[in-house]
Write the structure tokens for this entry.
Amino acid sequence: MQTTVFDLVDDQNMWRWSSAWFDLYPVVINLPPSTLDQNRGENLVWKDSQSNNTHFSSGWVWNNIRRCDQEVPWVDLVWFAQCIPRHSFHLWLVIKNKLKTQDRMGIWDMGSATNLNLMCCPLCRYNKDSRDHLIFECPFAMQVWNKVKDIAYMDSVDASWASIMAWFEQRASSKSSKTIVSKLVVAAAAYFVWQERNNRLFSQNHQPSSKIADIVLQTVRFKLMTFRARRRSKNPFQLERWKMQMKTMDIDTG
Ligand SMILES: [Zn+2]
């Protein structure tokens, strides 16, 4: 990596690649000889997809070679500076409807040993689960949602996934502390309901909906405790109030 272009050109301006490079990068065989100006230093240049020579940086190169689709309206719901990364990744799967829910498993060939007709939601034992059922139309998940939504400033939003997404799309560009709390609570609620669903499916661990709601709120509160109010924030004490409000609630996460 210490080799410069000058090192690769001989006195007659011919390339002197090592034989290993010919094997690894056959393209160098046909490179025309290069005339170098000994008085100029070397610098790294990236030729972008429009053949413009630009300053090289790994970030620029990544943005140049990756496929860029149109920005989705929910991008700020999932990815934001204060997010909890594992909750955001899970929420991304939720939005893309990529969780391995029972309705989706039904379209796979599971073999004759698995009777998909016997599957039912482990939370309410009624019918197969699905993304919309678990978040949060299932009676169990709805109890979780109903306990956390008021505190998340979403009291007018019902338990349907479509309602939650519509509510956020109206606030897509909002960076208010209330919206940050709302986003954290929704992501945490989706995450912990899914965890409880899996625990019931694969172990004997059962927790009541009130406990799951408490874990959601406590997790968000812990996250908020790491925030500092911005100096020029319109409402710098909003998060402080939320933290205090949560502190005085009877939360059992033990
Ligand atoms: Zn259910």
